[in-house]
Design brief:
The strands form 4 sheets. Strands 14-15-17-18-19-20-21-22 form an 8-stranded mixed β-barrel, surrounded by 5 helices. A 6-stranded antiparallel beta sheet has the order 1-3-2-6-5-4, sandwiched between helices. A 5-stranded mixed beta sheet has the order 8-9-7-12-13, sandwiched between helices. It has 3 domains: 138 residues, Beta-Lactamase (2-Layer Sandwich), CATH 3.30.450; 149 residues, 2-Layer Sandwich (Alpha-Beta Plaits); 216 residues, TIM Barrel, CATH 3.20.20.450. 41% of the residues lie in helices and 21% in strands. The chain has 20 helices and 23 strands. A hairpin with a 5-residue loop joins strand 5 and strand 6. The structure holds ligand C2E and calcium ion (2 copies). Ligand C2E binds next to strand 15, helix 10 and strand 19. This is EAL domain-containing protein. One of its GO terms (molecular function) is cyclic-guanylate-specific phosphodiesterase activity.
Length: 601
């Protein structure tokens, strides 16, 4: 039963909690109901209540007493006053006590007839609140057994309150104060609006690695590990510093005084200590800790999320050589933006029509014929506008969304190709595939999509960047060879900017190489670039690959390329990537005259 402050609105027997407006609901008080029932039974009162110094109130009304007495109005005010006084009091006939008698009212209208109060103390003698027993009718003076019962109940309520306070602040596994305590202490640390304090956070190990410890060794091992780490941190701490467990494998520290600063040498020492191998239940482990620092200002406490920010710094520090880092707002904002984009991209892939493919023609130099269309993903976000593939493709790779993106591209690209083939266009489709796609499932996914859309595999080409194609070359070569055997063209994209091992290149089951646009766009101006590209073309031909130049932006570059015996060209000078609806028109316009005249420039 939940109530707002001071209103015992229930007309049934039961129990309730009230708390100061604006605060979070307090946890139940361990054992309160049992204690209150004992007191109510022994004293025969229809209301037993406990008021704590933090403003929260608990009450119990046993059944069989008619309408329960409400803990509000004059009674609540008297209880609050008695709580502050902290002395025991029994008023066996309260009818003429001014605290319970409305102004000018007859004693017959007193709100209560019996009132007993017993202060509640913690073990250290601190006043925690008071326990009350109240009745409508007066009682005879209490005999010793009743007085003792009230005193015992108050002392048990004190134990419950202390236990609740402990549970409210303490992580049961490590015994360290936890996140609530961290925030409560941080607020008391920064009383004035202009106060600032340095916070420290430790990410003990990367989350995936810590979860792997738990999976392999069990939760009690993880608890023991956190104990051991906490002991190390405590060995480094100066007196007055406070340590908190703020999450799984995450610790935070408050300095003894808000203005205390930490010197770099002390932080280096801290990281070195945390990096030392740790022996946990006989299993040696080396952690990968990150220590984050944040200077927080008092006005940032409300809604400013200091713990998230200092943990962000700790997370960044984990991958740094130094192992500690001060919070960097720019980097944080970039990460938040990336996170936002990733969730938006996931939504765009699963339910929203924001993605589209554009198609860039690739033309055979000798005939001027369009031999392929490269499908390029476009994302128009409803509020951010056009997000370039150079931004969202790498994010999809990092966030594990690449397969979904590639499946989307396969499905939409092949559907479009099928439509063009039905319309009698003689084109091939070239699709970009990332390293995350290059495994045994790619062939199955591609074949299934081709079957679904009834397009021959020979109409398809996959573009892998040079670095993807060369990475883990043995396994990759097998996957690529399987695709090649199935009739799919394989292009090595962005060729010339990676560092291909010639031998690996010779063994690549590729059909063509696309020389990177950064090498092509300056061909007309730089003799050095021209010499490099010329030798690349010769090498690629020697190895049996067709050569495509991408990034042909001007007629002069096209002229330079013509003299290099390259096979195909692609670039803004020939055509920009086009929306699907414009492709047929472009192909018609560029289809007829004799070969040499067909290309612009
Ligand atoms: P890429 O595969 O090298 O694609 C060619 C990029 O060069 C495209 O940029 C294209 O618009 C641009 N381009 C074409 N002609 C010229 C030119 O003459 N000059 C210059 N400076 N640029 C030209 P876009 O569309 O922004 O794509 C960037 C990259 O994003 C692509 O580079 C590709 O790596 C990736 N990407 C795009 N779509 C997909 C996709 O569907 N899947 C995957 N895995 N990656 C994609
Ligand atoms: Ca490409
Ligand atoms: Ca490229």
């Amino acid at each position: 039963m939940k109530m707002t402050q001071g209103s015992l609105a229930s007309s049934r027997a039961g129990a309730g909690i009230a708390w100061p407006a604006g605060d979070a609901e307090p946890h139940a008080l361990p054992g309160f109901d049992a204690v209150a029932r004992l007191a109510a039974t022994t004293l025969g009162t229809p209301l037993v209540a406990l008021l704590l110094a933090d403003g929260s109130a608990f009450w119990y009304t046993p059944p069989g007493h008619g309408d329960p007495i409400r803990l509000d109005g004059m009674l609540l005010a008297a209880c609050r006053q008695a709580t502050r006084r902290g002395v025991a009091e029994v008023v066996h006939d309260a009818r003429d006590d001014a605290r319970f008698l409305p102004v000018d009212a007859d004693p017959a209208h007193a709100v209560i007839g019996f009132f007993a109060c017993e202060p509640v103390f913690a073990l250290n003698g601190q006043l925690l609140g008071a326990l009350f027993a109240v009745d409508r009718r007066p009682h005879p003076p209490l005999h010793a057994g009743e007085r003792n019962a009230l005193r015992d109940a108050a002392s048990l309520a004190g134990t419950g309150a202390a236990l609740r306070h402990y549970l409210d602040r303490t992580d049961p596994a490590t015994g360290l104060p936890h996140r609530n305590a961290f925030f409560a202490d941080l607020h008391t640390h920064l009383p004035g609006a202009d106060d600032t304090a340095w916070l420290l956070a430790v990410e003990v190990a990367p989350v995936a690695r810590f979860n792997a410890f738990v999976r392999a060794m069990g939760h009690s091992y993880a608890d023991a590990l956190m104990h051991a780490v906490a002991a190390r941190v405590q060995a480094w701490m100066t007196p007055g510093m406070q340590l908190y467990q703020v999450g799984t494998a995450r610790l935070a520290l408050l300095p003894a005084h808000p203005h205390d600063e930490l010197l770099p040498a002390r932080l280096d020492e801290f990281v070195a200590l945390l990096r030392e191998p740790i022996d946990c239940l006989g299993v040696p482990l080396t952690l990968q800790p990150g220590v984050g620092l944040l200077k927080v200002e008092a006005h940032e406490l409300r809604g400013g999320d200091p713990l998230r920010r200092v943990m962000n710094a700790a997370h960044v520090a984990q991958d740094s050589v130094r192992g500690w880092a001060v919070y960097d707002r720019t980097q944080d904002e970039r990460q938040r933006q990336d996170f936002f984009l990733v969730t938006e991209l996931a939504a765009a892939l699963s339910e929203r029509a924001e993605l589209e493919l554009h198609y860039q023609p690739r033309v055979q130099l000798a005939s001027g014929r369009c031999v392929a269309l490269e499908a390029l993903a476009r994302w128009r976000h409803p509020t951010l506008g056009a997000v370039p593939p150079g931004v969202f493709v790498p994010l999809a790779e990092q966030a594990g969304l690449m397969r979904s993106l590639t499946d989307w591209v396969l499905d939409h690209g092949l559907a479009q190709l099928a439509a063009w083939l039905r319309d009698g266009l003689d084109v091939q489709l070239s699709l970009n595939v990332s390293s995350a796609d290059l495994d045994a499932t790619l062939e199955t996914r591609l074949t299934a999509a081709a079957r679904r859309h009834a397009v021959p595999l020979a109409r398809l080409e996959l573009e892998f960047t040079e670095s993807t194609a060369m990475r883990h070359s043995d396994a990759n070569r097998c996957h690529l060879a399987a695709l090649r055997e199935a009739g799919v063209g394989i292009a090595i994209d962005d060729f010339g900017i990676g560092y291909s091992n010639l031998d690996a290149l010779r063994q690549m089951p590729a059909s063509c190489v696309k020389i990177d646009k950064s090498l092509v766009c300056g061909l007309d101006a730089s003799r050095h670039d021209a010499a490099v590209v010329r030798s690349m073309v010769a090498l690629a031909h020697e190895l049996g690959f067709r050569v495509v130049m991408e990034g042909v932006e001007t007629g002069r570059v096209l002229e330079a390329v013509r003299g290099m015996a390259c096979d195909e060209v692609q670039g803004f000078h020939i055509a920009h990537p086009l929306p699907a609806a414009d492709v047929a028109g472009w192909l018609r316009e560029h289809a007829s005259p004799p070969p040499a005249d067909r290309l612009p420039g």
